[in-house]
Amino acid sequence: MKCHTVKDLLPGYIEGLTSEETNADMAAHLQQCAQCHAAYEKMSTAVPRDLSPQVADIDFLSRLKRKIRRKSVRAALVICACMLVLGGLVVFEHVYRFAIPFDAERMWVEVGQIAVLDLAYTQEDVHVVSIRTLEPGEELKYGETAQYTLVMRNEGFSFNHAQQLGRVVDRGGEPVRLVFISYYESPMRRLLRVFFNWDSRASGWSTMWEADPQVSGMQHANAIEVYYLPSLRKITNADDNIRNWPPARFDALREQATFVWRSTP
Prior knowledge:
Elements: H1 3-14, H2 20-32, H3 34-46, H4 53-95, E1 98-99, E2 107-121, E3 127-134, E4 145-155, E5 161-171, E6 174-185, H5 187-195, E7 203-207, E8 223-228, H6 232-238, H7 247-251, E9 258-263
Parallel strand pairs: 6-8
Antiparallel strand pairs: 1-6, 2-3, 2-4, 4-7, 5-6, 8-9
């Protein structure tokens, strides 16, 4: 009989629950193995020999229940910890965003056209306008008018969120329309892109509504400048009154940004 078998049978052997044949094998092994005999002596003192079989059975069941209860509590704590970690990862994935660094080969500005259809005012006095992108050579539909617009093109990567902010500033007597834009990706996209060298073949665009749609006839500025500002999300979250900044302070954001495009009428 092997040591691990003897140790498993010791509780039943001490309490007189094993068969005569097993008792004989156990006794022979305990005489020869000092380690098992020490375990037998230690376990024997834990269960008084003068206890009646009924009391011994009750004590054994109580210890078994306590052991099962401890294991159940431990398992419940492990499950709760795993759920908290998983929940935190889900929230982090949906809330946190990493700024995508500027890449001149994958990000550029184009002047495009949109078709605008002025529908009507609703009963709630809301002006309803239908806007769609005009492809080169595409004709307008009934009632539509064509307007020029700025489009930030991207190729070779995908993003979860795009943010932009613009206003007119006076620069030495010249009104200039500044537009800051940035792309953001989720933690999972960042993990795949940085650590696993995963790259997407996706392409798309972001229409820059902050730039005056009629690029060819800018009514409030002599020029439009587009800058890529990765920290735009952080800046706007820290100060939601950024649109009311003094023009010089707003213009100074260019020092943190990368120049992308400039247009004059």
